[in-house]
Design brief:
The structure is a homotetramer of 177-residue chains. By secondary structure, chain A is α/β, with parallel strands linked by helices. Chain A is 41% helix and 19% strand. The radius of gyration of chain A is 16 Å and the shape is globular. Chains in contact: A-B, A-C, A-D, B-C, B-D, C-D. The interface between A and B is medium-sized, with 35 and 35 residues.
């Protein structure tokens, strides 16, 4: 089956967004990239701090409420429809719920060719990159580095600890059908 | 029919984004907001200057190529699916093609309750706000102010020339079913 | 004395930044614009939430610590030096301390031609624009609208409640010596 | 002499900004960080494309005009004054003019303790990171990688090709007097 969607799953500051942009540069067709930030930015400002929406604690832990889940479900449905309508899409995600998160995407994309990619990065290195970015709550990288991969099944994995985003993108692109 | 989608159409710097954020604040349910910027940001960097994608000339005129149209069609399909899946959505758009642009959204949203809103702003005032923002190509506001409304049909119109975004949002919210 | 520095003082969402960018567009010479955001962005990430630095409470109230004051004093010294070295500079400020804040700038700029401009905006209107921007802590606009002008002396005042940024900029530009 | 200013010089996408933020995190005192972007952002919008100001060509080459030089000279004077007034400052720079660029800073900072740091990155790796960032004109990284170091004298050099920003920052911090 033709790869219609590439799902990149990894913790904060693991390098997913950089890989997504490099994939757009190296893949011959034009691909769209959407991330969980796209969804969060689309939500009302009030939901970014409310218990119904998304909350980021001082230690970088992220909690998500029922109103968030409802909108997210519709969002995932929409991305699947875009793929069925012919767009090729890179999804840049953080599976905070591990296999339960993957299952949400899996169900919506069941009739679409998906390449599941785990983006790993050593926890200490990711935390250092978080410091270097300076725009994320300190602690997110460390708290998510292992958590988001537990119980998740991939077609392939890349590791940005010692490999540049562009090189990771080339390895992934070679697997796109 | 319940209003599931609010489409705001207006030229650059007419105040659509501000109205969208105010709508999110005054409407009782959580609404998502997506704009043409969301789609453009999702595209490969190369398409933002390529003749296949989107080009912004020195005078602020915007031209769009066939690859852009293909991805846009899938994007519109996806937004319609999100609405059918239960999300309430504000679309912040610039109908550069007038009625042809509206028809694209109209077809995709035919089984969904839509409130079509024209966002007008005096051309000179919009150009001044473009200068005050400082982040847009000079000339976009003036070239789009009238153009985007020609031949487009609305349920209602607001005019930001002398009315604040929040006030416009309240008038629109009162019409949401 | 030639006007070397224009100090715009007003509350959050009063329209200072928009006026500053319009001033840069209408004034014949090139002017630099620096705001309190320039200084805050230059500080370590940790100072933006620490009691030594700057803290923004949930109601939008801003508190500033001793380490912030030390760096701010050097910053003001530096801006004054740039002006003495020949640059023409627009300072976009929020005098949270009223006359004490003004005195800090006044001392540093005593041998430089300064145009002191109060930027007023009705508190309710500023709060609405804060909602429309969607990127500031809710409540800042209302809490600062009156506070920042108490006891401050101006050469002129503008009011953005019913007047566009560009028009305010033209009125200010006419007073630049 | 106490180190009052750290000057980081390197090409676009060499990792200077990340090192600067990490330095702010690891150094015990609060340091301010200013980059050439701070100055460019402070300039009128018109100067960012005008022949008097700064021009970025399609291949990423950067050209700078006489009006830019005048404002830059005042800016450098101001940074030096901030340091003499007691602020500790990290300057994140691109010496497009090589030794002539360094001489401008050297003259202004002659009575201040400066640590001159070269930030190197393999040209191909920097170009890949430019693609991963997706927000810079393609070609800047490659065209600047070697150019900005020619004839420039350093107290120390770091290389981000195989070393993380945080690790580079720790090595630099150990040399701060």
């Amino acid at each position: 089956m033709t790869t219609q969607v590439i799902v990149l799953n990894g913790g904060s500051s693991s390098g997913k967004s950089g890989i997504a942009r490099c994939l757009q540069a190296v893949l011959p067709d034009p691909w769209l990239t959407f991330g969980c930030d796209t969804l969060v930015d689309a939500m009302p400002a009030a939901m970014r701090t409310a218990s119904e929406g998304i909350e980021i604690a001082d230690d970088g832990k992220v909690a998500v409420g029922p109103a968030f889940r409802t909108l997210e479900a519709a969002w995932i449905e929409g991305i699947a429809s875009m793929a069925r309508a012919g767009a090729r899409i890179i999804v840049d995600e953080v599976f905070l719920g591990g296999p339960a998160s993957q299952e949400r995407w899996h169900k919506a994309l069941k009739d679409v060719g998906v390449l599941w990619v785990g983006v790993r990065c050593d926890s200490t290195v990711a935390a250092g990159r978080e410091t270097a970015r300076g725009d994320r709550a300190a602690g997110m990288a460390a708290s998510q580095a292992e958590l988001v991969h537990q119980g998740v099944l991939y077609d392939m994995e890349v590791d940005t600890t010692h490999t540049e985003s562009l090189e990771c993108a080339r390895v992934i692109a070679a697997r796109v059908g």
